Amino acid sequence: MLKPVAEGVRVRRSEFCQTNTVVVDGDAGVLLVDPGILDGELSTIAGELSAAGQPVAAGFATHPHWDHVLWHPGFGSAPRFATARAAAAIEAFLADAAWRERVAPMIPADIAERVPLTLFGELTALPERAEWIPWDGPRARVVEHRAHAAGHAALLIEERGVLVAGDLLSDVLVPLVDHSAEEPIEDYLAALTLLEGIADGVEVVVPGHGSVTGPDGLRERIDLDRAYLLALRDGRDPLGDPRLGPDAVYDWVAGVHERQAVLLARR
Ligand SMILES: [Zn+2]
């Protein structure tokens, strides 16, 4: 079930990695952000929307990672927007005839058969430096930055006080930096500053993975992500980070942290 988190904004959490699908009601259909993961979940969302007489008017992928660029035939053929940089990254990936073999190791084996790749990554590039999603509905501001992945963008639905954060500001995952970037940690810190700058008026934050939070949670998560990144940059242990250690929701996050610390130390 899609659950309301603000007027005209609903969220559904996937069983995979607490991935959040976001649906924003528009004038003639919905904006579907990061549609979801498992075939059954996607078709349930499609069924729920069609039963409510709400076609998908537009899609948006916050960034070009496999778990944010899936689709389902039930959503129809609306444009699936992404930043120009994100769309270019996926296009380059799909240009390799062996992309299916390349994507396979990214998907956990236990869910692989339930992840539909038929319409994978068929994104429409927004113009360079586009400020808004072109659709009939509450204005959705594109907040592009360089943290986590090329062309990552958060969406700010100002009229609804909702920030759709993509893979930042999670309470279950530590910040995962883009290792292909020249300055991955500085890029991430800059993105947090950018989000901090638009925090006024945000009442609801929906992260790509994890629980929805409010204005206090937004500031806490910015601080927590920043503290983690500074520890990573300085080669310290991010002591007390609740996403690591014994009370972590996912025990594998500690391993991901160790790997990225090693990769960064090698630079
Ligand atoms: Zn990601």
TrEMBL record:
GO molecular function: hydrolase activity
Annotated InterPro entries: Metallo-B-lactamas, NDM-1-like, RibonucZ/Hydroxyglut_hydro
UniProt keyword terms in alphabetical order: Hydrolase
Domain of life of the native organism: Bacteria
Residues in Metallo-beta-lactamase domain copies: 18-209
PANTHER family from the UniProt entry: METALLO BETA-LACTAMASE SUPERFAMILY LIPOPROTEIN, METALLO-BETA-LACTAMASE DOMAIN-CONTAINING
Name of the protein in its database record: Glyoxylase-like metal-dependent hydrolase (Beta-lactamase superfamily II)
The organism's taxonomic lineage, starting at the top: Bacteria, Bacillati, Actinomycetota, Actinomycetes, Micrococcales
